[in-house]
Amino acid sequence: MAGVPYSVPTSQVRKDEILHHSHGRAPWYDMQGVPSNAYVIGIAGGSASGKDSFYRKHNEQEIKLAFQNDLDLDHPDAIDTDLFIKCLRDLKQGKVTEIPVYSFKDHQRLDETKYLYGASVIIGLRELYDLKVFVNADSDLMLARRIRRDTSERGRDVEGILNQYLRFVKRAYDNFIQPSSRYADILKDIRSAFNQIVPGFQNEVSVRLLVTHIQQQLDSRAMRFRNQLGQRGMEQHSRQQSLEQVSLGKEINSATGKRVRVPENTVLLDQTNQLQGILTILRDKDTDRSSFIFYADRLSSLVVERSLQLLPYREKTVTTPVGLTASGKEMVAEDLVGITILRSGGPFAQGLRRVIQDVKLGSLLIQSDPASGEPLLFHTSLPESIKKRALAKNTVVFLLDAQVGTGAAALMAIRLLLDHGVRQKNIVFLTFLAAPQGLTTVSAAFPGVRVVTASVGDKIEEREFPVNAHIILRKAAGDADFSVHQADSHVKPFKSATMNLAENHEVESVTQHAWVISPDIGNPGSRYFGV
Asked: Which domain of life is it from (predicted)?
């Protein structure tokens, strides 16, 4: 069973990181934040067909029999079916899951598990499959493959392999596996060439057809609504500004003193002279990088401190150094982590460390498709308290991003946390600047998530900018060095339709449309990190 093609660990990244290959993972949910089910393909066949991870945990007597090749591991009862169903159902619903790891050298399921998340198409019980494929291979070929695998990978001897094959494997194939081929089905559009049963040898055509079908399912699940978010946000915000009902939110002063309406779950820092002075420095295009870093760190500390006031505390009594008793408070949260949306959320990391000692940090790399402006998830690095759902439900997460414009990146980041088991009430979104429209979008999808911001802009507006062609081409090539909110944009088609990218021809005019918060602070990630 595997997720295709996103969460694929590689040797180039740290153990806690997942690198999302290809063009990044597009939104797997709608504008209300509701995820769509993954497409599940079940592949059945003879020996070594992919069920091995879910062998049951063996007792000492069973392990002894296994080393003597006397344990039947090919009977359906050898499989932990309940766990398999749970893992497959979680993946189909878009949730994170933990796949067991089985050691064939030790004949035992290990305590460690394999983290798996992010599948839009799953190749994995019959009731859960959307497409069922049976791989039909010659029995001699299957035996030869089994001998080669077990001698080279599992340290078995040929005599033991043949004995186990004749006693258990072939009997299980004849009694359980081969009869299941009658349930195989392939969609009508590829039935004529693919049929119901796939040959297990020289099957390149069948594989290509299956891969094409998988790609179609991936494309059909790619949500595209960035521009709808921007337009819907402006429309909803305009309607709210024209209504007086307090139930639709609350009115606050924007960065320019204009009265705007924001959702009730929005927390705005007190607009003191000190805070407005810091924001003025950050907005000034002439502020040098060292000053920008200093004041961004100060601002992030203020936002973090305000966010901590939203968390529950309980009474605690301590003894002072001179032996007196003092009553105080302690935080209730079992674990608190910070997750930065790279690179725009990067400036928050230093401020978070200043306020919360030994805080655990993770990150998400969310950038946009240069052609459509849709958010794409390229990379995740999450602490164990989020990767394990049993822990995630009691973990408080500070989600860090410098700006909330249309809310597209915020929706993706929050959806990812919910898929891992984090509760909405335990997510606090920290930001420097937010547009009322983006706040409306986030609140409509996830009303339990609170947003703490230092400033609220008047509005977002779509503006057009001239862009150097080589920058556009670098983005189109998948360059990951562009921050989230430069990614809040979409690129107009090249006016030169005959342009050959390989020849690097010049383009007369290339423009980029971007959703801009008014008044803005530029690109915080680029200004902070100097890139």
From this structure: Eukaryota
